[in-house]
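re: ur question from yesterday

yeah so i grabbed the chain u mentioned. its 236 aa long if i counted rite. heres the sequnce exactly as i have it in my notes:
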Amino acid sequence: MTTQQQFTPVGAEAGTTSARLYQAASAIWAAQLEQPFVQALGNGTLPRANFEFYIRQDARFLEELTRMFAYGAIKSHRPDVMEQMGNLLLNTIRVERELHQGFAREFGLTLEEMENTPLAPTNYAYTRHLLSIGATGSLAEIITSVLPCAWIYAEVGRHFTRLGELPEAHPYKTWLATYSAPGFEDVGAWLRNTLNELTVNASAQELKQLEDIFVTSSRYEYMFWDMAWRKETWPV
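ran it thru and got these structure tokens back, copy pasting raw so excuse formatting
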């Protein structure tokens, strides 16, 4: 049985908007677990240089992700959603920053050096895609644009940890444990549930727009792994 046949994400309940979005991007998602970077990350054979490249780019990406939660709070008219968007903003800064600080120490870098890493082309394009939606889109569009990030990472973490107990010597055990933890899964679940509530009465045109956003973000998630596998640089 192939990885693609085994891949069934949590949270794609039939009849919901999140299920519709997943179906639109299912081929992209199935390919994620077969991507060389992801495979090597999961089995522990990923070269250290590629992981450092990824972590440095991810630290830059998360700077922009926090801004998306700020946009979400601004665009919301519900106090509970505004509060949770604020919580996600703060947690992204605190939890992810702590994770990256740990890796920075391992790499012999300061956090400032990591934060001054130039954006690779794919990272630049992905974050501009998000920020454009944050500035001009609706709350539903903002949630849709960031949902693949939260959802896919939980699936990757869950996939490799459920294959068996990770050995103590696994070089990326901390990373996998972070994204397979129930607390991280809760982020994706809240985003999905909120999106499902917001779009109960969405028109066919609105749902198609959300599909396009979700597929684009899913493609960028795949490209982000590929970017790190190739240690992508600007051609000129």
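noticed a couple things. Confidence is low (pLDDT under 50) at residues 1-5. also The chain is about 75% helix and 0% strand.
anyway ttyl
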